[in-house]
Design a protein that fits this description.
- The protein is α+β, with helices and mostly antiparallel strands.
- The protein is built from three helices and eight strands; from the N terminus they run βαβββαβαβββ.
- It has an eight-stranded mixed sheet.
- The model has no long low-confidence stretch (mean pLDDT 94).
Length: 139
């Protein structure tokens, strides 16, 4: 199945400063900004577009339970995940299973933009957090 880079997620401590850097220095455009208190997300999210490429800035809203907070405590701020767009998330999951790659089933969800997503198990990806996503309403 074909894959295309969809976005890069960046864990940040201060979303205001990060937005300023990405919009002023890198000359990106703030596309959306929202807060998600969903279990397994618990973050404020800013989506930046830089010449057609997307970056998601992720700041934890709960320093106890947010996975972004845990990531920052363990590894520091910086690249959190790389997301690849697939044509059909269900088919991509079957393909991963056939290849012996596990997914984190608890992470399966649809975000406010209609993007369905799931994370691959970092134990099977050389430690990199990889997201697969599709946009079923755009097909």
């Amino acid at each position: 199945m074909d894959k295309k880079l969809d976005h890069i997620g960046i864990a940040v401590r201060n979303i205001e400063e990060s937005i300023e850097f990405y919009t002023k220095v890198l000359r990106g455009s703030l596309i959306d900004r929202y807060r998600s208190e969903a279990e397994g997300v618990e973050s404020e999210i800013a989506i930046i577009d830089i010449d057609g490429d997307r970056t998601e800035l992720l700041m934890p809203t709960n320093n106890t339970t947010s996975p972004i907070a845990r990531f920052i405590k363990q590894k520091g701020k910086g690249v959190h995940h790389v997301a690849y767009r697939v044509e059909d998330l269900d088919e991509a999951r079957k393909e991963l299973e056939q290849q012996g790659i596990r997914t984190l089933d608890w992470s399966l969800r649809t975000n406010k933009h209609g993007r369905r997503l799931i994370y691959l198990n970092p134990a099977d990806t050389e430690g990199t957090i990889i997201e697969y996503c599709d946009y079923p309403d755009q097909n």
